[in-house]
């Protein structure tokens, strides 16, 4: 018989993160969001809480937990704020995980302890301007010269790439041609401050305003040959597997936002009065909130199922795409409903649902658009 109850350890983690989100993040994140400012001190505190090391072994400074533990933490963070949730998600899934999964022992020993402690952030440079979903169209190049990779090109929409805590970006680059034809794409670590590596200004974004997202440029940027991550020519394949895991994490984040919309709507419906009574007594409001809860609860089951298969070592790509597709669209729906429940106040950034509404849309785009998820699901079903 299925049992979706959390273990005592994971339930304790959930409670701890929930309290941190409510007591530390909630009172101040709105101001950072309005100023379009990255809250370095909050991120350091999340590191001290152990969030960046959750799914990594203790030998590398991690918490010895599982990827599911990370997902539970992301859900609780996103119930209050998605900027901080995506900072953790990207720092773990995109910054540290490629090194853990594919790096050499020397690379793990050098980079993972600080990344796991949240003392440093890592990023992954895959997307390029004009590429988008077609990540295989990589134009950034890297050639070997005197024991160094010489990198030229640019990357776009890279999270955690220019903060005071950022210490490395792993980038995909064309390192040659495959014998059978096509591009040989490899992944290479570029430490922050390397000559020829420049970081652009923070993007002016619709949402996630307290997170860091930038364009990166490489102009004859030289790094040692041993900065290659994994096997040469396997960089793109490696990152596709990282994306499969990351989609479960984004699903958890989406569920958190969707549940946060429920939380805020319940509270507001009890406080706001119209026509002489709390609006929560109106059936129209009750039904909207009930529908929001149904969606959030169902989306949670979807990412639980995907994580369950991943942790058992079973194929989980279809389940990850299902979870990511459904939960991201649920987040968007719930944000719209919550804004409607709040009326004019829902359009104000001082109310959390205003931020939720702005933050929700990117969830249908980042780490694989909804259209890409549908394509992957259909392909796995043998359709087309």
From TrEMBL:
Its cofactor is FAD. SUPFAM superfamilies: Acyl-CoA dehydrogenase C-terminal domain-like, Acyl-CoA dehydrogenase NM domain-like. The keyword Kinase does not apply. Gene3D superfamilies: Acyl-CoA dehydrogenase/oxidase, N-terminal domain, Butyryl-CoA Dehydrogenase, subunit A, domain 2, Butyryl-CoA Dehydrogenase, subunit A, domain 3. It comes from Blastococcus xanthinilyticus. Residues 233-381 form the Acyl-CoA dehydrogenase/oxidase C-terminal domain. One of its GO terms (molecular function) is acyl-CoA dehydrogenase activity. Residues 7-119 form the Acyl-CoA dehydrogenase/oxidase N-terminal domain. Keywords: FAD, Flavoprotein, Oxidoreductase. Belongs to the acyl-CoA dehydrogenase family. Residues 123-221 form the Acyl-CoA oxidase/dehydrogenase middle domain. This is Butyryl-CoA dehydrogenase.
């Amino acid at each position: 018989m299925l049992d979706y109850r959390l273990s005592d350890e994971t339930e304790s983690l959930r409670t701890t993160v929930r309290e941190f989100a409510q007591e530390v993040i909630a009172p101040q994140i709105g101001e950072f969001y309005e100023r379009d400012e990255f809250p370095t001190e909050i991120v350091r505190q999340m590191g001290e809480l152990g969030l960046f090391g959750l799914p990594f072994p203790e030998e590398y400074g991690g918490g010895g937990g599982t990827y599911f533990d990370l997902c539970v933490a992301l859900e609780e963070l996103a119930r209050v704020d998605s900027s901080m949730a995506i900072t953790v998600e990207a720092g773990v899934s995109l910054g540290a995980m490629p090194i853990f999964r594919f790096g050499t022992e020397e690379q793990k020993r050098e980079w993972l302890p600080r990344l796991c402690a949240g003392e440093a952030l890592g990023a992954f440079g895959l997307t390029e301007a004009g590429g988008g979903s077609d990540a295989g169209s990589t134009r950034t190049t890297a050639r070997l010269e005197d024991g160094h990779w010489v990198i030229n090109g640019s990357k776009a929409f890279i999270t955690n790439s220019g903060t005071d805590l950022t210490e490395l970006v792993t980038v995909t680059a064309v390192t040659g041609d495959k014998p059978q034809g096509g591009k040989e794409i490899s992944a290479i670590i570029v430490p922050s401050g390397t000559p020829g590596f420049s970081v652009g200004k923070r993007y002016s974004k619709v949402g996630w305003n307290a997170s860091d997202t930038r364009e990166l440029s490489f102009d004859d940027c030289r790094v040692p040959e041993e900065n290659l991550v994994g096997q040469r020519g396997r960089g793109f394949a490696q990152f596709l597997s990282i994306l499969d895991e990351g989609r479960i994490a984004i699903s958890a984040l989406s569920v958190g936002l969707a549940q946060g919309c429920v939380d805020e709507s319940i509270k507001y419906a009890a406080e706001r009065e119209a026509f002489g009574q709390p609006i929560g007594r109106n059936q129209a409001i009750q039904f909207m909130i009930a529908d929001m809860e149904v969606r959030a609860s169902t989306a949670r089951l979807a990412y639980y199922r995907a994580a369950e298969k991943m942790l058992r070592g079973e194929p989980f790509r279809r389940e990850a795409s299902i979870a990511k597709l459904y939960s991201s669209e649920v987040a968007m729906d719930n944000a719209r409903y919550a804004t409607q429940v709040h009326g004019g106040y829902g359009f104000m950034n001082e109310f959390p649902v205003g931020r939720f509404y702005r933050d929700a849309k990117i969830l249908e785009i980042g780490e694989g658009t909804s259209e890409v998820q549908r394509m992957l699901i259909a392909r796995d079903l043998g359709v087309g």
